[in-house]
Amino acid sequence: MQKHNLLELVEFGEDPFLPKILVNQPGYRLVLLNIRSGRVVSQPVDNATETIYVLSGHITIFRDENSVNMKAGEVLWSERNTLDRIEAHEDSSLLVVVVGSETLSEEELDLRAVEHFQRHPLVFQKFDGLTVGESFVLINDHDPIPLHGQMEAMRPHQLTWEYIVHRPGLFRIRVRRIAPLTGSETSPTAVPQNLWGIRTTR
User: Fold this and answer.
1) Cα-to-chain-centroid distance, residue 18
2) Residues 6+ apart with CB under 8 A from 25
3) Within this chain, do residues 129 and 80 fall inside the same structural domain, yes or no?
4) Which of 51, 82, 99 is the C-terminal boundary of a domain?
5) In a domain, 196, yes or no
6) Whole-model pTM?
7) Cβ neighbours, 10 Å, residue 59
């Protein structure tokens, strides 16, 4: 059982698009979207049913060649999630419920056999190849807290980080893309320890 206060979660800062994942389970997602005025958000296309409730603001939803204007208090239900994009005409908050999304087999990225200096760049490369809604499972032998912090700093509001297994010697983490790349991102580079001036042991 989970409880959320939506009024406390509605906020608009400098970010043009601020998604907040409230529930993320197989076959069911509940997301609060805060979109700044004048911004356009792309929507993933899958076989799920989607309900969009406008908490505040004014938006236009585009689907194929059609469009629907929506204001606060209105609800849109779509049998198949084929919505192309959402355009906000003023600061708007939406509650989005996605039900019945097909569960695809997720790729796994096992870092345990990867050289330490290659791990972060490899994860960023994998993440940047995802489309919105896609995910992969990260496997590691320790809790990659620094990696999580680096991803949140370099890809803000673009990902969710969900622990599947959290025990000594084994960590399985689902990393999901929830917003597209902005085009201004940079990525960490792989620098071997011997290039840092650190002596490596044999």
Assistant:
1) 10
2) none
3) no
4) 99
5) no
6) 0.56
7) 25
Coil, strand, or helix at residue 161? strand
Judge whether 45 and 75 are in contact, CB under 8 Å.
no
What domain count does the chain have? 2
Give the range of the structural domain holding residue 44, as residue numbers without chain letter.
6-99
Residue 17 burial (C-beta neighbours within 10 Å; 0-12, 13-18, 19+): buried
Output the six-digit token pair for 86.
Answer: 């959402």
Find the helix or strand (DSSP H, E) in which 108 lies.
strand 107-110
Spatial separation of the C-alpha atoms in residues 76 and 126, rounded to whole Å = 34
Is 32 in contact with 93 (CB distance < 8 Å)?
yes
Q: Are residues 93 and 20 in the same domain?
A: yes
Both tokens assigned to 183: 């085009």
pLDDT tens string 18-72: 778 788 777 788 888 899 999 888 765 556 788 999 999 999 998 777 889 999 9
Return the residue matching tokens 């206060």.
Answer: 5
Strands, E assignment, 57-143 = 58-63, 66-71, 75-78, 83-88, 92-99, 107-110, 135-140
Residue type, 53: Y
What's 195's DSSP letter? G
Long-range contacts of 1-8 (CB under 8 A, 24+ apart): 6/32, 6/55, 6/93, 6/95
